[in-house]
Amino acid sequence: MSSSLTVERHPETRPPEQRTHRQVSTLPLVAPSVIALLLWMIVPLVMTIWFSFQRYNLLNPEAREFIGFGNFTFILSDPGFWISIGITILLVVSVLVITIGLGTLLAILFDQEFPGQGIARVLAISPFFVMPTVSALIWKNMLMHPVNGLFAQITRGLGLGAIDWFANFPLLAIIIIVSWEWLPFALLILLTAIQSLDHEQLEAAHMDGAKPLALFRFVMLPHLSRAIAVVAMIETIFFLTIFAEIFVTTGGGPGLATTNLAYYIFLKALLEFDVGGASAGGLIAVILANIVAIFLMRSVARNLDT
Amino acid sequence: MGTLEMTRKNSRKWLWAVLGWLVACLLFFPIFWMFLTSFKTEVAAVATPPQLFFQPTLENYVEIQARADYLNYAFNSVAISVGSTILALLLAVPAAYAMSFFPTKRTKGTLMWMLSTKMLPSVGVLVPVYILCRETGLLDSRIGLIIIYTLINLPIVVWMIYSFFKEVPKEILEADRMDGASTQQELRHVLLPLALPGIASTALLSIILSWNEAFWSLNLTTADAAPLTAFIASFSSPQGLFWAKLSAASTLAIAPILIFGWFSQRQLVRGLTFGAVK
Question: CA nearest B131: which of B227, B207, B219?
């Protein structure tokens, strides 16, 4: 980016004896972090893979045995699993569309100068700092409750009746809650990206008679495309494993209506105590997340100047 | 012509102000409503029509401490988020220092690899981590969560400190070295003061993320080590409506982090996007 156009001193410009002297000592500095992360990544992952090939239930640990791909064939033929995949995709895609669509518009709005802009921006990004269990319960009880919730009170006051969100539109309710939590994130990142846009360029295009819509389409959007990609990928990684919001509101129900992949695995693991099945599901989640991660890593690597 | 342009610009400014403030208030409203409800009685909290003006009471704040021992959960949250942040900084600062000032050809690969550990979905390792914690007695313990949060946040912490160190002008360090400063002196008197604001905002982000983490805290704690995320989740049981108490507990639980977040919003962008957006 243009802001990082400082003069880079390369290590070669240092006196050679100093460079070699210093470099020998860097390994002990880096090693603790690397070893800690290596253990954290490898040990549980190997265990997950190991368990996923076993019949292993914590309620009946004696019956533990190797069953090859048994857990995978069982899970892949479980309609509940495919429902959870569908719900995961629906959840991820709709929250992505909402947060990035609205986030872009709001970023443009908060890029304008107006009185009290700083305070307004702080208020707008606040939901991101609210812990997920609080957000979910506030929305579930005080806003979306079918009798005493504020929404129901307002619509009933207008003579429209009330919506029982978590009975009739449970997934939509979750989507709204998660969107509220993450819209500020998209707004914050995209606003930062917009502010790095050269405003003189915008002015010039404006002077040349470009309409606001054309400005947005041909100047703003291309500039934002990278930031949007980064937001989309980071959000996807978080949204693939949305858990707390479901845990405290619907518990995956009614039926399986809000059971996403993370919740499906949780149900298998800590309610059915089916270690093998949960591990197989977990492995599938890891693979899905990695597909997304590859794209994110590429985008970050491109921006890394070491 | 000039005045016309001025009025048009002025009126547009006011249009932006109205829109901006409307959006801000809408987004902030749930938090405001929660804050308001925390000062109502339980009866007033569910009253029809909703009350905007009422006789405020502090009874909910007293009750959550007296009946649910709120401070115990708050202490767990503080201990876990501060503990894991200190541990992560102890691991990350030396690593980031080495990688930013003495890069080798492996540095970029190491950084990218650290980041990639962040992509491992927690639910994929739920079972083994649960079993490991159970076997080692770390289930429902503060130490267990501190270790896990340290590892979860370590990549972000390393990345952020790395990017702050990168911005320290190398000339200053080298000039100092020419003057015969030892590595120790160089670290303490030159680098530390320069990097301290960056390290502070990194610590803030790490505290925010640990404080709000709600996958491991819900799955690995029951009572003793439960932080505020888990305490608030206990209000989800359908028996009885305790909205005013839920609001009071929630207000206390989010207030410190909200303030931290307001102060560090700019640095957050850097940390949350791994430096991909600045």
Answer: B219
Q: How far apart are CA A23 and CA A13, in angstroms?
A: 14
Alpha-carbon distance values, A276 to A69, A75, A133, A174, B215 (Å) = 10, 10, 29, 29, 20
pLDDT of residue B181: 66
CA angle B48, B54, B60 (to 5 degrees): 95
Look up residue B187 and give its amino acid.
L
Tokens of B104: 């080798």
Q: Who among A40, A114, A139 is closest to B16 (CB)?
A: A114
Asked whether the beta carbons of A134 and A127 are under 8 A apart, the reply is no
Domains, in order of start, for chain A: 78-302 (1.10.3720.10)
For residue A54, give the DSSP letter: E
| Domains of chain B: residue spans and CATH | 72-229+256-272 (1.10.3720.10)
- Report how far residue B152's alpha carbon sits from residue B146's, in angstroms, rounded to the nearest whole number: 10
Residue A116 has pLDDT above 70, yes or no: yes
Q: Among A48, A129, A148, A224, which would you mutate to test the B interface (most chain B Cβ atoms within 10 Å of its Cβ)?
A: A129
Reported as half-sphere exposure (CB side, CA atoms, 13 A), residue A141 has a value of: 29
Q: Residue type at A180? A: W
The confidence score (pLDDT) of residue B238 equals 64
- Mean pLDDT across chain B, nearest whole number? 86
pLDDT at A216 over 70: yes
Q: Contact at 8 Å (CB) between A265 and B103? A: no
Q: Tell me phi and psi for residue B213, to 5 degrees.
A: -60, 130
Using the Cβ of A242 and the Cβ atoms of chain B, whether some distance falls under 8 Å is answered with no
Would you say A264 and A91 are in contact if contact means Cβ atoms under 8 Å apart?
no
